[in-house]
Amino acid sequence: MFLSRMRLDPRQRRVRRDLGDRYELHRTVMCAFPDAEHGRAELGVLFRLEVDGASPTLYVQSHAQPDWAALPPGYVAADFLEGPPQPKPLGEAFASLVDGQELRFRLQANPRRQLFVKGGRGRRVPLRAPADVFDWLARRAKESGFSLRRLTTGAPAVGLRALDDVVGWKRKSAGGRRKLTLGAVQFDGHLRVEDVGAFRAALETGIGGGKALGLGLLSIAPTGD
User: Fold this and answer.
1) Are 110 and 182 in contact (CB under 8 A)?
2) Which one, of 52, 51, 35, lies nearest residue 43 by Cα?
3) Residue from 192, 163, 218 nearest 44 by CA
4) Is the predicted pLDDT of residue 117 greater than 90, yes or no?
């Protein structure tokens, strides 16, 4: 596994386009895997866009090592680094994880539930109430081999921040485009690894839906950092 971090230059036209259309951002990310015969899921590509401050920051995780020299000229902010971003290997860090370990985490996700309609296919609707959103996270945590650290009050030691809706324009096979809008939130907090095998799988495959639009990447760090 590899992790790349890069700060983007919002003055660049391609960056501005990608900020407004997550499908285009997805295509830009995938240009770093030009020789691959498989798609995002097969390559384990997950990404997250953080738009705090003047320059947005892009994180990309993947099984295959990306070649960021394929990015458009000027896409990465000039004052961030010289030359293409260098992916950081994650294999050793993931292999060293153990049950009972406590870590900090960040996750941008699309909490939602399925509404079933009699005689229809049903539809997915976003969860907006904080209690429903935290319940969603607790269920996903259990499935993903970790638990949420709790405060002395019993509440999860997790911060919740509502994000702007994620928007992407999906191209149709018959021509034209269809707008897709996903509700998004960001969780920041502390977790405890309960099932290291399931936890590693969640790190590699992501949590929840909307992965092609930059949601689901679970990032971890030692509690002391």
Assistant:
1) yes
2) 35
3) 218
4) no
